[in-house]
Design brief:
Blueprint: H1 3-11, H2 20-29, E1 36-40, H3 46-54, E2 60-65, E3 96-100, H4 103-106, E4 119-123, H5 128-140, E5 149-152, H6 158-171, E6 173-179, E7 184-190
Parallel strand pairs: 1-2, 1-4, 2-3, 4-5
Antiparallel strand pairs: 5-7, 6-7
Helix pairs in contact: 5-6
Length: about 190
């Protein structure tokens, strides 16, 4: 089933917008003071820069990535695509912390978390295994608190859509913020 069909069945609407930047603006409008933002998959930092230049709140932003590109081929992209030679993007913002390495080793139940009333999750790993791992750590640590926001950049991909349908929809009550042809954002109503 395709993303738009899944959303139509689940929410009765797709709340379609024409670009991910418009969708990101909808997310930004819903960010509260002192929120934690977890970006899973950073690559060149376009998303990171977009959010940090527009968010005025005192948030804690953490970007997780290998910075060596895709560890395996994905769709029509070769292994190593999106590499920055192990270096994070040169974004200077005191609210930002880079977490460099394999997320299965850097984001575990032992990861030091800052208590917050709202968490924002930006899933953009492209690959199923690291995305599912990050999702499960978030779930097991009870990070999907009320009003938190969950965004999937490749929700059109069957594997990412599987995580949305078989995990997120089963674990959390959600409201749909909006979607593009390939991305989707939800706000947690109840955990």
């Amino acid at each position: 089933m395709r993303l738009q069909s899944v959303l139509k069945v689940k929410f009765g609407t797709t709340k379609h917008v024409s670009s991910r930047e418009i969708l990101w603006n909808k997310i930004i409008e819903n960010i509260q003071m002192e929120a934690n933002i977890y970006e899973f998959g950073v690559a060149y930092g376009y998303t990171t820069n977009y959010f940090l230049t527009r968010i005025k709140q005192n948030v804690k932003y953490q970007g997780f990535d290998l910075f060596t590109g895709l560890p395996t081929a994905w769709r029509n992209l070769a292994r190593g695509t999106f590499s920055t030679d192990g270096n994070p993007p040169p974004i200077k913002d005191e609210r930002l912390t880079w977490i460099i390495g394999d997320v299965t080793q850097t984001f575990t139940s032992e990861f030091e978390l800052r208590a917050a009333k709202q968490n924002i999750f930006l899933f953009d790993f492209d690959l199923f295994e690291p995305t599912l791992h990050a999702y499960q750590v978030c779930k097991n640590q009870n990070l999907f608190c009320e009003n938190s926001i969950v965004y999937f950049d490749e929700a059109f991909d069957p594997e990412e859509l599987l995580i949305i349908q078989n995990y997120l929809f089963q674990d959390v009550e959600l409201d749909l913020i909006g979607s593009t042809w390939g991305a989707v954002a939800f706000q947690v109503r109840k955990n």
